[in-house]
Fold these 2 entries.
Entry 1:
Amino acid sequence: MTWFVLATISPLLWAMCNTIDKIILARYFKEGGVGVLIIVSALASGFAAPFLYLIDPSVLEVGGDSVGILVLTALLDILLLWAYLNAMQRDDSSRVIVYYQLVPIFGIVAGWAFLGEVISNDQLVAMGIVILGTTIVSLESVEGRFRFKGRTVGYMLVACACWAAELAIFKVVALEENPWRSLFWKHIVLMVLGVLMVLFIPRYRASFRMAMRTTPLLSANLLNEALYMLGTV
């Protein structure tokens, strides 16, 4: 049952992250918030790297091919954050989070494609139920007429697809190397991407500087990233 407990703790921590993200976006940013939160998430990965090194000093021995794959997972992570945060800016967090139920569906397909896993009949039925539920949530009543929230759905489909692909690809590397090496290099790549965004995207750089001068905002961001990383581990 250990796997069940671990699988339950992660969504709990990520739910806390979702709430903090929504509060930050609504209270501190009218525009540019998505870029700032992506940068903070990426740069915060640099704080995790030393701890991962202490846990397993052999992290530097990862193979070159594996590093290349981990670069891909880091890029998927950035795209995931961008899509998810844009959806959070457009809609309520309680609605946006429902779409993450699609991650297992993308995960099943990715596991079938990348890992040779078999899709059972029970899984097919469950996939149909989840798709039906998220379709219902995608409709809202406006002046007596139903409207399909296409932009929110589009952003979350991108986020879910990235998350599922990232998990499947990450598992391939983690099985070849070990989870600590994989996490270490993923965080290193994310940190580098965050630095590049600060250096080469002026709008994000200006918003990031403003955020660094706001103590409550900085504290909330750091707490958020700590919870997210713990959930990932």
Note: The mean pLDDT is 81.
Entry 2:
Amino acid sequence: MHNAFIFPGQGSQYVGMGEDFYSNSEYAKEMYNNASDLLGFDLQEISFNGPDDILKQTQYTQPAIFVHSVIVDKFLKDKDIKPDAVAGHSLGEFSALVSANVISFEDALKIIKVRSTEMANAGKNSPGTMAAILGADDQQIKIICKQDGIVVPANINAPGQIVISGELKAVENAINTAKEIGVRRALALTVSGAFHSSLMSPARQPLLEIMNSITFNNANIPVFQNVSATPFTDAAKIKNNMINQLENPVLWCDTILNLKKEGITDFYEVGPGNVLKGLNKRIFPESNTFTCNKLENLKACEVL
């Protein structure tokens, strides 16, 4: 193994993403049109023109990032850049499954439609939020999360970079605790729910039902999954991990370190933004990470 595709999740979106691919590729046009038909709303309009306060709503953010990522994945593979392994951050794990031929684009989008809608509903019915904690060690994270109410680590992103998730007041208190014990920085995130916590449990059954209606295939390359940070190719295990991902933390730091152990040195961030490139600089600074979010960036990497 020497290269991996890594797929971003929520927070990587920006207004205008994917428009350059749409304007220059019949394949991209077809993918956006098919997605809009399946979703029941104009994904192109929201992706390309926003506004930002609409694009960042979970039910729009998730499919927008996913479709963009799958299009970039195809562009890379058409130029004979193919991964030895894949991984995706939260939502990005669905893009990874499509890349590894575990599920089809259409089936993944069906799941994401349910997942994003149900996660948004869970956020409305059980209000929660998330916060970034920077510069805390493991013991400090335990202290920060020890609150009245639900607060849990949600994204273990990089050394000293953790996102916590939970009930509104509990997260607010956790931020105050972090400041009191001298953590470098603690800030609330603008999100519509307490993702990767038990507050997402109402979305579990609808997600399970839609996933049970879809055929999962064995992966043709290893998929390093969020819930354990380890590789899987077995269809049943991959599916079970995707269900469990909803309420459990994203072990991203360990995922990258485990890819490193397998000999991966080159990463392609396949999708909008460059969040994962920034994390890689902290986790695995000797690695090469190519940002593949725009046609011009792909050209700069000599991909095209």
Note: The radius of gyration is 18 Å.
